Amino acid sequence: MGIGTIAFFGLGHIRQMSRPSQDKEVSGSDSAHRRPVRSYVLRGGRLTEGQKRALAELWPHFGIDDSDAMLDLGELFGNRAPVIMEIGFGNGEATWQMAGAHPEENYIGVEVHRPGVGHLLLKIEKHGIRNIRIACADAAEFLRKRIPEGSLEGVRIYFPDPWPKKRHHKRRIIQPSFVRLLASRMRPGAILHVATDWEPYAEHMLEVLDSVNGFVNLSTSGGFHNKPDWRPETKYEKRGERLGHKVKDLLFRRMASAPCSG
Ligand SMILES: C[S@@+](CC[C@H](N)C(=O)[O-])C[C@H]1O[C@@H](n2cnc3c(N)ncnc32)[C@H](O)[C@@H]1O
Q1: pLDDT band, very low/low/confident/very high, at 13 (cuts 50, 70, 90)
Q2: What's the rounded Cα separation, in Å, for the pair 164 and 200?
Q3: What span, in angstroms and rounded, lies between the C-alpha atoms of 195 and 198?
Q4: CA 95 to CA 158: how far, in whole Å?
Q5: Ligand 1: does its nearest atom lie under 6 Å from the Cβ of 88?
Q6: Distance in Å, CA 134 to ligand 1 centroid
Q7: In angstroms, rounded to a whole number, what is the distance separating the alpha carbons of residues 144 and 158?
């Protein structure tokens, strides 16, 4: 499965940006099946006029165009500051706040939902943020093809789709193969931070992260962690709170010897 490209409606010029596959089954791959099992379903969702403008005008600077070539992260940002990746940023509210609060770090946001990308670009413009780059792509493919091994200082995945039905559990992004892929792209000492408001998914995350060699749980209890200061409240978190859900954070450190990606 490859990442497709779409012609982008620039004002007078056409840009290319990656577009995740339109397959109904959506991330990660399940080698037992021919069709890849994906962690998302592409929602339609119209772009607002502001988002269209942001995509046309700001994507050339902040967007990561589709390619099969490995990225040079220093070249991408124009400096060698540590790089943190946020996967599935939704509308990017947490992304711009974290990047704005930490100009000494660089952030790569990965999201398949184009209106969310447009929303984040508008926030980047409004708040004058420079240290974010955005990929509109399937995170598993993007990591495999574009991110050098041992290059990320941190990975954050906030409120990933919980896929509550048993038959959909295979679509959950936190799976051993995906976590091994993350480990391969993280440098020793880097932190993987995930959060969810869906208790059964939190238990599943704990089980998966405990089972993958190369990570150590930063919670002294061996379970969930207090919310670290760097995580802003996200849109999905607020929704979960309105429904009375409890939020769980998990923080795992990548140890010196991590397994190869699967
Ligand atoms: C439930 S939303 C949470 C959004 C945001 N993190 C928040 O807390 O508000 C999950 C997001 O992950 C995105 N997503 C799911 N699988 C993905 C993948 N493989 N690559 C990139 N984005 C993905 C979805 O498009 C969706 O926007």
Answers
A1: very low
A2: 8
A3: 9
A4: 10
A5: yes
A6: 13
A7: 20
